[in-house]
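Async update (no meeting this week)

Hi team, since we skipped the sync, here's where things stand on the single-chain job. The sequence we agreed to prioritize is pasted below, unchanged from the tracker. I ran it this morning and attached the output directly underneath so nobody has to dig for it. Comments welcome in thread, and please keep replies under the output.
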Amino acid sequence: MPVFRYVGKDSDGKRKKGAVKAPDLLAARDLISKLNVRIEKVQPGNIFDFLNAQGIPKPRNPDLVIFTRQFATMISSGISIMECLDILADQADDPGFCYALNTIIDRVKSGIDLSDSMLEHPGVFPEIYCNMIAAGEASGQLEGILARLADYEESSEGLKREIKSAMTYPVVSLVMVLGITYFLLTNIIPKFADIFESMEGADLPGITKFVLFCSKLLTDYSYILVGGAVSIVVTYKQMSKRPKTRYYLDYAFLKMPVFGDLFQKVCISRFSRTFSTLLQSGVPILAALEITSKTSGNMLIEKAISDSIESVKIGESLSGPLAECWVFPKMVCRMIAIGEKSGALEGLLAKISDFYDDQVRTGVDSLTSLIEPLMIGVMGTIVGTIVISIFMPIMAMQKAAMNS
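Output:
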């Protein structure tokens, strides 16, 4: 049954959010009204909006990776699909994932295909996952496709994990730098500010005036700065939902110094691996391109793939429109063109993905080794500037006292 999210106020005027199951929007509104909620907004949701309202969290992605590998192993051992699902549902620790599996079991028992049952849970099983399962059911090669899916999920999750792990140190260092700077400017500098103010006729150095200004700004107007930061984040999130704004944001990310090249390699790797896995699983090329464009994570790549779909529909090459998009390197476009001519497109795409996975890992390692000394330098510069700004007027005061 469809799920609808709502926002409103209860009888005490308190803001209330939740989700209900109902056959249609009108029935959902009627059901919400019976909960004594004055409705402000109702919109379609998914099963995890409903589960979250019941206190059940959304499943973690690693659960899907483990599920896929175990499912593939059991299917290859000759265990039936229903028995596999029963076993996996029994051992699932995540409440949301367990709920989804039990629902799928009921649907499969009622005669619905496994892939169609999974499509009802987009928060757990992505479209690429369901389409590959459908291809496996149609071709009778579910065992092989599950193994490919497991490899795909493990590779994607592994790359994410490596990037997160590599970026942990720089992020922690940045937080420490900001924390130390905030502490010095709001707790230490104000004590010296009183001393400097008592120095009648003293001409403070420019660096000291600047540090005192920053200290006063953080001490007296911190709530405005926090409010401004929150407003920027909220505005960014709202604006990024608009396709046109998202397009320019994605363009800006890819053009960022240092990080842009890494983002580009991640996008190419994801495109190649997703497209290759779908083709190897027997998904038709047009359907594979549609799914790949939706999972690309970048509007520029999505547009290039959409142009390629139109090109393939009229019998032209896939590589032509991709070559017109600067995001795709010449090497990638040429390899895709060779794959089209030789009939080995999926194999070459897999090689492209492996190559860019290695490039991403190398790039992350290089970036980490660059950021570490950079953060130490930034921290030293900030602390040094604050210390110098304090001691310069003190030393000037001592010198003046000695001369007098």
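Quick observations from my side:
Confidence is low (pLDDT under 50) at residues 53-57.
The CA atoms of residues 132 and 230 lie 41 Å apart.
Reply here if anything looks off.
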